[in-house]
Amino acid sequence: MNINEKLASLKYNKDNESHLSVDNDICMRCKNRCCTYICPANVYEWNEEKCTMTIRYENCLECGACKIACEKNNILWKYPNVEYGVKFKNG
Ligand code: SF4
Ligand code: SF4
Q1: d(CA 75, CA 63)
Q2: Most Cβ neighbours (<10 Å): which of 1, 9, 31, 61?
Q3: Which residues, listed in sequence order, are joined to residue 75 by a DSSP beta bridge?
Q4: Which residues are CB-neighbours of 18 under 8 A, at least 6 positions away?
Q5: Could you state, in chain order, the average pLDDT of each consecutive group of 10 residues for the chain (91 residues)?
Q6: Is 76 in the pocket of ligand 2 (CB under 6 A)?
Q7: What does the alpha-carbon distance between residue 81 and residue 18 come to, in Å, rounded to a whole number?
Q8: Closest to 57 (Cα-Cα) out of 10, 20, 84
Q9: What top-level class would CATH report for the domain 3-87?
Q10: 13: CA distance to ligand 1 center in Å?
């Protein structure tokens, strides 16, 4: 099973509000935008034309890598509300 098949096999319970947020103005000045390639679930996408960050929080695996990697400490990260987020095991 490859990584994409594994990701597709996970279950998610989507909350209506994001547990991840960024200050877009800070992202505009960020050179590397490492969040857009370090995240294993491709949660962050930078739109060059609109200069905005899209955050697909519903796909988050809650690994915490983006929070550690962001060179501007610009990711407000918390766990999803109880009952929401990724489920790694059935039940
Ligand atoms: S690494 Fe941090 S500051 Fe840079 S684009 Fe990503 S969230 Fe924004
Ligand atoms: S916590 Fe992990 S999966 Fe979630 S957005 Fe950050 S890097 Fe991606």
Answers
A1: 13
A2: 61
A3: 22
A4: 55, 57
A5: 83 93 98 97 97 97 96 96 84 50
A6: no
A7: 9
A8: 20
A9: alpha beta
A10: 25
